[in-house]
Design brief:
This protein has helices spanning 8-49, 55-95. By secondary structure, the chain is mainly α.
Amino acid sequence: MDQPQPPSDQSDAASELTESVAARSAGIAREYADVWRTQYRTWYDRSKAQSTWSAEDVVGDHTDLFEHLTPIVERSIDLTIELLRPWAKSFEARTR
């Protein structure tokens, strides 16, 4: 027996949301990888040039890293909240 299907406008909206989420997730992952790749390259180049690192180098590297990662984490949290919102509304409706 066939399962009931949602109206096509709901199905289209869900499909668009899924595509949007997938694209945004891929963008976040790509950006995250780029930040780390750049940082690893910096550390690798410094290791080849110097046998020891100063505390200022390490603190500066991590400060720079956090400045680049913070917006990516914020977008990840926003996306997670956006994805969980429909389930939260559904749960809230059932508990009333």
